[in-house]
Every structure is written in structure tokens, then in C-alpha cells.
Amino acid sequence: MLQTNQRDDLRVKVSQVASNHSSFGARYASFGVLENDEKSRRFLGIELGSGYDNMNAIVKALDVQLVKMRLPAYYAEPRFHTSIAWTSETSDSIEEKDLAFNGEALAALDSELGSRLRDDELWVADLCLKVGKETTRFPLK
Fold it and tell me: Model's pTM, two decimal places?
């Protein structure tokens, strides 16, 4: 857990990582379902395709800094996404076929919206850090 006396140091480290990575274009690839570690929430997300390697490089650089501060690293295999809906129904509480965001729903979303989803490019230009209620934005180079 981040201690109060580590906040400024973390901001410095995140700023350094941002200044060493260039902004980049990215595109969404598909709809996906993610559950939080506690299995208390299930999320419908739009997962990143093109740009994944750039995001992963940033996360790996952040991991190095986090470990130096004796903080836990990010997920070993992150899934970069934008969450667009959530439910408290999870795979631990309901059968997969009865869940709101099941395979059938994902297929229908992809059929209806998938091609438009993959057409638009996103521009990733900043790295944002939220500590408590404060969000700090660090521009990528």
C-alpha cells in the first residue's frame, strides 16, 4: 500500500517514466469481460489491440519503479481496456450462460459495433496518476 510519505516520490517516478515514452496511436480490438480480483464485480470492457505493446512497455517501466519503492508491481499480463458497464453478478455467483456479459452478448456486440469500434484510432498522449482524490497528468514525450 502506498504510504503518505511515498506520494511525492511516486509522482516523480511516474513523471520520469512518462518522459521516457512517446505518445502513440492505439485501436480497440474487441469486447471483453473482466472480473476484479475479489470476484465482486464483472465488467464489460473494450480491449485494446493496436498499441498494446506500447502500453505494456509503460507498465513494465512503472513496475521497475514500484518495486524499487517496495510497492507491488502491476498485473503480470495486463488487459488494457475501457470499462463501459459493470454488474455485481460474477462467475462465482451465477452460471456463465446466465450472466449479463456472456459470450452470446459479446458476439452480438461485436456483430453490431465491432467494425466501427476497430476503425477509430485513439491517441495516447498522457500518463495519469490518481492518488487519493488528486489526479496528476504527465505528458508522454
Answer: 0.87
